[in-house]
Structure formats: C-alpha cells, structure tokens
Amino acid sequence: MSRAICLFAGSFDPVTNGHLSLIRRAASRFDKVFVAVMRNPAKQGAFTVGERLAMLAEVCAPYGNVRVLAGEGLTAALAAQLNANVLLRGVRGMQDLESELTMARVNRRLNPGLETIFLPPEEGCEDVSSSLVRELASLGADFSAYVPPQVRDRIVNKYSKGGSGNG
Questions:
Q1: Are 117 and 87 contacting, i.e. CB atoms less than 8 angstroms apart?
Q2: CA distances from 46 to 15, 78, 139, 146, 166 (A)
Q3: Band of residue 1 on the pLDDT scale cut at 50, 70, 90
C-alpha cells in the first residue's frame, strides 16, 4: 500500500478498543493519520468534544504520526483541508458495510481524489461499539474489555455522577 495521509473521523463517544485497533493499524501504514472527533449538532454526546479529544490524545500518544483534532461539517471537506487522500472506516458487518459504501461514494463525489479504505475488526473487537459501552456503563455492567485501560475510569466517573452520561 502506498504511503498517504489518512483521516479517521468519527464521534469516538467514547473511544473503544475497536477504534484504537484501527488507529494502530493506520499508524503503521500511513505517513500521517488524522483522528477527527466530529461534532454533530443534532446529537448530544455522553462526553464533550473536549473530553473525547483528551481520551484520544492519551491513547494515541504512542503513535508519533497520529494527530488528534476536532472537526465539523463534511468529512470530505475536512479531508481536503488536511490534504488527506484516504478515509479510514471500520466495518463490523454487512449493515456497516452498506452504509459505509454509500458514504464512500458520496465522499468521492464531493472530493474526487479521496479514497475510502475499509478495515474489518481485529479478533475480539467484532462487537465493540461506543453505544454498547455507553449502555453497559449506564447499567453498571462491566465494559472494561471494550475500552483502553486509560479511559475506563473516565467512563466510570461519567456514569457514576448521574447515570445518563450526558456531557
């Protein structure tokens, strides 16, 4: 695979082992990897954008070619601003693949030089999602197998202060 500038954009609410697996794999394959916490005004996250950025910065610290930032608007436009020519997307199953293929086509129309690369989850990350982690945490269940150890306590603290986690 040729070296390129990669953008991995998402909500990361919170960052999971699945996200970290994709970041680690991208860091070994691309010259530069941007990890963008995208703001969606239509959604209220459990964690603020600042909290998500802090968690990502901590788990991405070992990777010198990974930069964490906040983004908003269209992912294709952010990729153009960053001179990224590759979008990284994780796909856990057919439902993810169908929606991601649609987004890849739209992003390519908006930014013709942008390619989307799909990576399947590593073993143990097949069912990991931020929404699963939030649900488990809100119900007091053990979610520690799904998140990096550095963020576990932040999640516990968020949900122990009121249960909903709304940031």
A1: yes
A2: 12, 24, 14, 17, 4
A3: very low
CB 79 within 8 A of CB 69: no
Specify whether 43 is catalytic: yes
Q: Is 19 a catalytic residue?
A: yes
The SS3 assignment for 79 reads: helix
Q: What is the pTM of this model?
A: 0.90
| Known active-site residue 130 | yes
Q: What is the pLDDT of residue 94?
A: 77
Q: Which of 29, 92, 108, 152 is catalytic?
A: 92
Q: Which of 11, 19, 21, 32 is catalytic?
A: 19
Q: Is 154 a catalytic residue?
A: no
